[in-house]
# Entry
Amino acid sequence: MTDFHYSVDSDGVATIAWDIPNKSMNVLSMEGLAELETHIDTALADEAVKGVIITSAKPDFAGGMDLNVIAKMKEMAGDQPEQGLFDGIMSMHRTLRKIERAGMDAKTLKGGKPVVAALPGTALGIGLEIPLACHRIIAADNPKAKIGLPEILVGIFPGAGGTTRLARKLGAMGAAPFLLEGKLSEPRKAKAAGLIDEIVPADELLARAKDWVLGAKDADLVKPWDAKGYKMPGGAPYHPAGFMTFVGASAMINGKTQGVYPAAKALLSAVYEGAMVPFDTALKIEARWFVNVLMNPSSSAMIRSLFINKEALEKGANRPAVDDARVAKLGVLGAGMMGAGIAYVAANAGIEVVLIDASQEAAEKGKAHAEGILDKGMKRGKVSENKKAEVLSRIAATSEYDALAGCDLVIEAVFEDPKVKAEVTARAEAVLGPDAIFATNTSTLPISDLARASKRPEQFIGIHFFSPVDKMLLVEIIKGRETRDMAVAKALDFVRQIRKTPIVVNDARFFYANRCIIPYVNEGMRMVREGVAPALVENAAKLMGMPLGPLQLVDETSLDLGAKIAKATRAAMGDRYADGDVDEIVFWMVEQGRLGRKAKAGFYSYDDAGKRLGLWDGIAAQFPPASEQPDLITVQHRLMFAQALEAVRALEEGVLTDIREGDVGAILGWGFAPWSGGPFSWLDMLGAHFALSVCDDLEARFGPRFRAPALLRDMAKGEGGFYASRASIAA
Ligand code: NAD
# Structure
C-alpha cells in the first residue's frame, strides 16, 4: 500500500503528497512513516531536487497518529516493552530530524534543501508534528480546518518531537494551551498564535509553497534552536521570567489535574528538563517521558476508552444489521429544557424538526432557547449569521400534532408523568406513518411500562439525553422488553447524525448512568450525615479525579429532585429500600430551602449572582463533624466502589451488555474519573483480587451495599479481569 506519492516537477521541486487509499482522512502508521522517510532520503540524495513540499492530496492534511498502532507497538514489544517503545519513538525522531536538518552541514548549517509543509486543511497530532519539523508551515485559509495537538485529551502527549519543538518555538507559556489543553485553532488563529507561519488562499497553496522553496536561503532553513545563541522565548527554567512560568505551570497543572493525569505531569517534565539541554538531548528526554506515559496503565485505559472504544461505539459497534435508518424529519414533544436542547442539536445537524408544546407560546419559547445557544456561538465567533438562520429555519415550533406527519422519529420530553406521556404518545401515533419510531427521554420511568401506551411497542424505545443537551456527549439508548432492531438502529443512526456517543442498554430502574450516579451522591451525603467533614468528602472525590464532588453534584442536580427520586424509589422498592439514612439529610436540606444551585443555597453557599462560594457551614449545626475523621483512602474507596460496584451489577443483570459501553458511558455520562478509563478499567487496574478484599472490608464496616457481586468474586479466583475476559470471549 502506498500512503505517500512522490513526484518531482521540471523546476526540481519534489512533492510528497499524503493520500491513504480508501480513507477520508490521513493517519500515520508505522509503514507510512517508513515510506515518508524513503521519499525524504530520495529527495535529499537526488541532486536535481532543489527542495520538497510535504502536503496532502485530500482536503485535510492528517488527523493524527493511528492510536491503535501505539497500543500494538506496546503489545508487540515483547517482554521489554519500554525498550521497544523507546526505540520506535527514537526512530520517529530520527526521521523528523532528518527533515529538519535536510542535509545541511552540521557546523556551517549550510547546504540543506528547503522543506515546506503545505496544509490544505485539518492538521492534528502527528499531522502537526511533521510540519513542525519542516522549515516553513503554510496553510490554506480554510476556516473549517483545525490545527493543533489534541494528544493530552486521550491521556498522552505529543511524543514525536511536537512537545519539544512547540515549547522552543513559542516558549513554555505560549505553548501551554496547545500542549496542556489540546487547544485546536483554525488557520488564522493558529497563525496569530505562531503555530504556523503563513496562510494563503486555498487555490494558491501549492504555488506559494513552491515559490518559497525556490526562494529559500540557507538561513531560512535553520531552526532557532539549531542556531547559535538560541534562547527559549519567555525564558528557560533558570531565567527569572522562565522560573516564574515553570513554578506557576507546575502548580496550575497539579491544581487542574489533582495529580491523577500522568500525561500532564510527564509533558511538563519533558519541557522543563528539555529546556536545559541541547535540542537532540531534549528529544531523547521527551522520548523517555513519552515511554513513561505509554507504560502507565492510565494512558492505555484512556486511549482504549476515549479513543478506540468511543470511536467503535460511534461507528455502530453494537448496531443491529438493518438498513440505513438516518432521520430525515424529527418530531420533539415538549419544548422545555430537554426538548428544546434536542431540537437544537438535531437542527444543527441538518435535520428538519417539528417542536411541539402544549401552547404555541411554549413551543416558541423552546425555539428561542435554540436561538440563545446560537447567539452564544456567534459571540464566540463560532457561528455565522447564515448558519444561525439556517438552523432556526429547520425548527418549526407549533402546538399542532398534525405537523408530525412525515416524521420518521419522534422523541418526547414532556413532564415526567406517565399519564402525560401516555397521552402524547397516543396523539403522536395517530398522525405518524407505520414505520415511524417513537422514543421517550424519560430519566426515571421504565421504558417497557411507558411502551404500554403505544400501539406498536416494538417501535418504542428510550433515547435518554443528559443535560445540557448541547454540551453532553453521551446518549443512552434503552431497549424496552418489546423493542425491535429497527428502533435500535434508528436511535443509533440518529445519535450518529448529531455526532454524540451512544450506549445501548436494557430497561431497568435508572438505566445505566443514573443508576451509578445515585449511589455516588448518596454515599457522599451519607458520610456527611455520619459526621465526616464535607470538605473531606469533596476533596477525596476530586483527588480521585472526579470532576465534581458528590455534594456539588447534588447541588447542581437539585435536592428536591433527589427527594422526589427517593420517594419514588422507596415506593417501588418497599422493604428493600436501603437509603433511609440518606433521606434524612436530603429531606432536612429541602426543609431548609437549600435546594442547590438553582436556589442559590445547598451544600454550598452561593452569592446573589449564583456563583459558588464555599461549603455551607450551617450543615454542622444539624450534622456535626465527628471528632475523629476517617482516613482519605476509606472515603475514596466508599465513593468509588459505590459507583463501580453498581456498574458491575448492571453488567451482571444484563442492563449493560458490553463493558466498553460501561466505561465510555461512565466517563462521558457522569465524569467517572477519566484517567482510569472508566469503572471496569479501574477495577482491572486494581486487580480483581485486591478489589474484592476492599469490598469485603467495606462491607464489614459499612454494610451490605458494598458486598462484591458474584462476577467480581469469581474473577478474583483467576488471573483475569473484565477486559481480559472480554478478549477471551471475543476470541
Ligand atoms: P421541562 O419541565 O423543562 O419541560 C417539559 C415540557 O413539556 C414543558 O415545556 C411543558 O409545557 C411540555 N408539556 C407538558 N405536557 C405537554 C403536552 N401534553 N404536550 C406537549 N408538551 C407538553 O422538563 P425537562 O427537564 O425538559 O424534562 C423533560 C423530560 O426529560 C422528562 O421526562 C425528564 O425526566 C427527562 N429528562 C430530564 C433531564 C434533566 O436534566 N432535566 C435529563 C434527562 C431526561
Observations:
- The chain has 29 helices and 21 strands.
- The longest strand covers residues 13-18.
